[in-house]
Amino acid sequence: MNEALIAGVGISDFGRFPDLTEEALAQAAILDALKDAGVALRDVQAFYCGNALGGHLPGQRALRELGTGGEAVYNIDNACSSGATAFHLALQALSAGQYDTVLVFGMDHLSGLGGGALPLNEKDWNNRRGMIMPALYAMRAKRYMHEHGIAAEVLADVSVKNRRHGMLNPIAKFCREVTREEVLASRMVADPLTLLQCCPGVVDGAAALVLTTRPTRGVAKPVRVLASVVQSGLFEIHQVDMTEAEITGRAARLAYEQAGLGANDLDLIELHDAFTVSELLYYEALGLCGRGEAAQLLASGATTLGGRIPVNPSGGLIAKGHPPGATGVAQIVELCEQLQQRAGKRQVADARIGLSQVTGGGIWGVDHAACSIHILSV
Amino acid sequence: MEITRYPEKHFRNEAGGMTLLAARDPASGELRFPPPEFLQQGQAAEPVAMGAHGHLYTFTTVHPGKAPAYALGMVDFENGLRVFGRLVWSGDAAPAIGDTVRTVPFALADGTADYAFEPVQKGAAA
């Protein structure tokens, strides 16, 4: 069995496109990925679609006008981990020999949802009592700041860094550069998180990948997948440490074991910075630094472009936005472009190994319902 | 299929005030809050009072834009459980991590009777 490789990538612009649909955005990403891979649509044997908010049969809706031949379409909803989970399942099918060429895509169109925090299940115990995702992370932030003596300015600096990165990313259409003062002065969403510390609530986008076990003939060198992990949250009703991103730490350990490497071997990371505090907690969960040391790591410049381990060179969710079905695939697109040395002005010098991390939550009793981590290399 | 709806409520009003009711598995002694909605295959659970007071582990105030702000918190009880709920702080008083809180009646947005947490004033009988 040949190794499954990423042969081509495609991504739409990420921005506010109320006159477009998620299907149109996905088609753009899919056509780009096929062209990049040098693969014809008729050679794709199955399609894996990550989508969280689009309703029934999203994959078929996106594909029907492209002229596909009735191949299997798998629709995967794992909240914000939908796209990464779709990628994971596609790899499984290739590894099992079920297919030799498949296409993974993720998409969501938030312009049609009216803005604000991502909609959650209204029957959920916590959500009935006012929980929204910014509030959950605000509570984590409040506790983290309390335990480690972290100032609000540290949180703001994550937003400043990622939006600075995003300004170098041509698809991040909604991004603008901000100062620490602007971040802190923006409207309070959930204390201590201000508006500019949250990923923008209304951004549309799609991303796509072509995977194959066949010899590749793409535009760029194919990318290897050293680790692919999906984990689910534990049922926790006791007094656990909310500043420990347990599921991310667990998934990272599994991924590092699969890949046979550790955090020190990584050249870049794309992680789930839906809120500024998330990035700090994930520095620690991914092993970039010890508990309580994330502020120092950020301040050192290590996670900025040009630093030792750039985090979110794409701008992350804070700069690009977060159409949840697309996010996991978009992270992998960014890693591929970086590892293929074609990331333009945001290129991480000599990048050879990258990690993506995405979570998915919104239900009570579970510290993130889902987490997916991938490690890629060339 | 053997599914039974758990018959107990998740709070009780007593002379001394409201108390939350956890559910205990009589076989394992394990506690949980909120109680299970359903019991499977003969599973048993019994209500256990959570105790009068808890301590605020963390909190936030949500500012929904045009709607009024509201506060949320995670409260730790002596039985080892952590409970999420609304916070009702009066006037200009602000919550702080570690505050002692008690359970008080509160109505959900749809009018359903529920609970919230309010601070126990320093010097008040605990």
How would you describe the overall organization of this protein?
The complex is a heterodimer of chains A (378) and B (126). Chain A is α/β, with parallel strands linked by helices and 378 residues long. Chain A has twelve helices and eleven strands. A nine-stranded mixed beta sheet of chain A has the order 3-2-4-7-1-8-11-10-9. In chain A, strand 5 (188-190) and strand 6 form a beta hairpin. In chain A, helix 3 (82-95) packs across helix 12 (324-339) and helix 6 (152-166) crosses helix 9 (276-285). The longest helix of chain A has 16 residues, at 22-37. By secondary structure, chain B is mainly β. Chain B has strands spanning 3-5, 11-14, 17-24, 31-32, 38-40, 46-49, 53-62, 70-77, 82-87, 100-107, 113-119. In chain B, a hairpin with a 2-residue loop joins strand 2 and strand 3 (17-24). Chain A binds chain B through residues 116, 125-126, 128-132, 134-135, 138-140, 142-143, 146, 187-193, 237-240, 242, 364, and chain B through 32-34, 57-65, 70, 72-74, 76, 80-82, 84-86, 97, 108-109, 114.
CATH topology group of the largest domain in chain A: Peroxisomal Thiolase, Chain A, domain 1
Oligomer category: heterodimer
**C-alpha Rg of chain A, in Å?**
19 Å
N-to-C order of helices and strands of chain B:
EEEEEEEEEEE
CATH class of the largest domain in chain A: Alpha Beta
Percentage of residues in helical conformation of chain A: 25-40%
Mean pLDDT of chain B: 92
Main sheet summary of chain B: 5 strands, antiparallel
- With strands numbered from the N-terminus, the spatial order across the biggest sheet of chain A is 3-2-4-7-1-8-11-10-9
Helix content of chain B: under 10%
Mean pLDDT of chain A comes to: 96
Structural domain count of chain B: 2
Strand content of chain B: over 45%
Detail the poorly predicted runs of chain B: none
Count of DSSP-assigned helices of chain B: 0
Shape of chain A: globular
